[in-house]
Amino acid sequence: EGETARNGVDASVDSSLPHHVELYAAYSFIDARFRHSAVAGDFLPGLPSSRIYGEADWHDPGSGFYTRLDGQWETRLYVDNQNSAYAPGYFRADWAGGFRQKLGPLGFNEFVRINNIFNRSYIGSVIIADSNQQYYEPAPTRNFIVGATASYRF
Questions:
Q1: 106 in Cβ contact with 151 (< 8 Å)
Q2: What pLDDT score was predicted for residue 37?
Q3: Whether 29 contacts 9, CB under 8 Å
Q4: How high is the pLDDT of residue 70?
Q5: CA–CA distance from 6 to each of 30, 51, 98 (Å)?
Q6: Does an H or E element contain 106, and which?
Q7: Predicted pLDDT of residue 1
Q8: Residue 103 above 70 pLDDT?
Q9: Are 92 and 120 in contact (CB under 8 A)?
């Protein structure tokens, strides 16, 4: 569709607080538009103009227990060059917790994770400019992951 212009900013902050608490937040903004074409001034499809991500972690060094709550918010994003259709913005939150152990060079991690804890319906991905106008692919509903890992340090 011709020439494009992209201007934006990314910012993040990462903090270690007392009592084994860690916080992280990130913000992204982009103004991405077509220039000098039939759709000049329209937003590039597939890019949300703003995205915010944040997480809070806590761990107990004595037991190896840890927990994390994270969330992501995105603005709507257009799915075609004419900006005639879009996927709405959304907010999603996830939670994880588990135990980590170290025995010499061995490491173990047992964990559980709940994705989309509020069971929100949202568009997980889009197919840009689909000729059948089947642009949207739903994101998974609330789901759970239970697992364990083992590692060895040489």
A1: yes
A2: 85
A3: yes
A4: 98
A5: 7, 16, 41
A6: strand 106-115
A7: 64
A8: yes
A9: yes
Q: Report how far apart, in Å, the C-alpha atoms of 125 and of each of 60, 77, 141 are.
A: 37, 10, 14
Residue 146 has pLDDT above 80, yes or no: yes
Block residue for tokens 């994770």: 113
CB-CB contact of 128 with 79 (8 Å): yes
- DSSP type of residue 140: P
Q: Running DSSP on this structure, what letter comes out for residue 88?
A: P
Report the SS3 class of residue 152. strand
The pair of structure tokens assigned to 48 is 């949300």
The answer to whether the CB of 107 falls within 8 A of the CB of 150 is yes
Q: Please, which residues bridge with residue 54 across strands?
A: 25, 71
pLDDT at 2: 76
Among all chains, which residue has been given the structure tokens 């992951």? 145
CA distance 5 to 44: 9
Long-range contacts of residues 113-120, Cβ cutoff 8 Å, at least 24 apart: 113/144, 113/145, 113/146, 114/142, 114/143, 114/144, 115/140, 115/142, 115/143, 115/144, 115/145, 116/92, 116/140, 116/141, 116/142, 116/143, 117/93, 117/142, 118/92, 118/93, 118/142, 120/90, 120/91, 120/92
